[in-house]
Write a structure and sequence with these properties.
The protein has 316 residues and is α+β, with helices and mostly antiparallel strands. It folds into three domains: 44 residues, no CATH class; 107 residues, Pseudouridine synthase, CATH 3.30.2350.10; 158 residues, Pseudouridine synthase, CATH 3.30.2350.10. It is built from six helices and 14 strands. The longest helix is centred in the C-terminal third of the chain and has 13 residues. About 3% of the residues have low confidence.
């Protein structure tokens, strides 16, 4: 292999991945590893960025709902990114987990230190699923490879029951319904998803909801997604005319001022999307029994509900 001779310090697997990713062009055409070079061929190799190392352990407080040798369950706060990505290399749940759960964690924390699974790659230690940055609530983490594989299978076959609580801007028309609309990449805004039929990026998406309480300009809704698409709940609720309150991407609001509920000027009531992962029900990957983990309703959403209740009930 020509590249192996030219780059002796690089592994063959690294070079093979680079070729498969289109990093090699021969006479201006993307080349395959099996291509036989002819004399005088022009070979251009764009050296890929090396894979980024895993997150640095950071001493960030976490609320653990459960910890054992196989899994950990965390009540993730709003504003915390789950794993490192472009623009968010620090302050992540993954970095905090390394501090608390790997051997170099704080011995005084009282947490077990058997480590975190590596099945998700170096930047995602223990991460099996994710929540959006501004969504609070229950997230389960794998501490061993066996646990990771068992949990991943449950998410893949949809046996994990995820329940969310959302405050919506406006109200769903029905008291309970199932939204069955495919979701794909937004045609114009890269950071958004959208309901899209017959598009290459579209995937089946099903969300069930039940209205628990109605207000003059909002509703409290229990949501159970049957699939796990990116931004699924946020896209589906927006599609039925009741986007998640204070969701900058889909509701048009990034802050809820007192005037929203008819109060005089004052500090903002809410400054993040009103979406909370309230519970997660799954089979323990080692013990095998069915377990349900719940995260308490967060204070900022509770304050929003109190303000809405004081403004009085209603149906739009």
């Amino acid at each position: 292999m020509l590249l192996a001779k030219l780059f002796p310090d690089s592994s063959r697997s690294f070079l093979a991945r680079a070729i498969n990713q289109g990093a090699v062009r021969v006479d201006g055409v993307v080349a395959k590893a099996s291509l036989k070079l002819r004399a005088a061929a022009m070979v251009v190799f764009t050296v890929p960025q090396p894979p980024r190392a895993g997150p640095v352990a950071e001493e960030i407080p976490l609320t653990f709902l459960h910890v054992d040798d196989a899994i950990a369950v965390v009540d993730k706060p709003a504003g915390m990114v789950v794993h490192p990505a472009k623009g968010n290399w620090q302050g992540t749940l993954a970095g905090a987990l390394k501090w608390h759960l790997q051997p170099h964690g704080d011995p005084a924390s009282g947490q077990a230190a058997s480590g975190l699974s590596t099945a998700g790659g170096p930047t995602r230690p223990g991460i099996v699923h994710r929540l959006d940055r501004d969504t609070s609530g229950v997230i389960v983490v794998a501490r061993t490879e066996t646990a990771h594989q068992a949990l991943a299978r449950q998410f893949a076959c949809r046996s994990v029951v995820k329940t969310y609580l959302a405050i919506t801007q406006g109200q769903p028309r029905f008291d309970a319904d199932e939204i069955d609309l495919p979701i794909g990449i937004h045609p114009y805004q890269r950071e958004k998803m959208a309901v899209r039929r017959d598009h290459s990026t579209s995937r089946e998406a099903v969300t069930r909801y039940e209205v628990l309480e109605r207000f003059r300009a909002a509703a409290l809704v229990r949501v159970t997604p049957r699939t796990g698409r990116t931004h699924q709940i946020r896209v589906h609720l927006a599609a039925v005319g009741a986007p998640v309150l204070c969701d900058g991407l889909y509701s048009g609001r990034t802050v809820i001022e007192p005037s929203f509920v008819g109060l005089p000027p004052g500090p903002p009531i809410l400054q993040r999307q009103a979406l909370h992962a309230a519970s997660l029900e799954l089979d323990h990957p080692v013990a095998g029994d069915r377990r349900r983990f719940e995260a308490p309703f967060p204070a900022d959403m509770d304050a929003m509900l109190a303000a809405l209740r004081n403004a009085g009930p209603g149906r739009e």
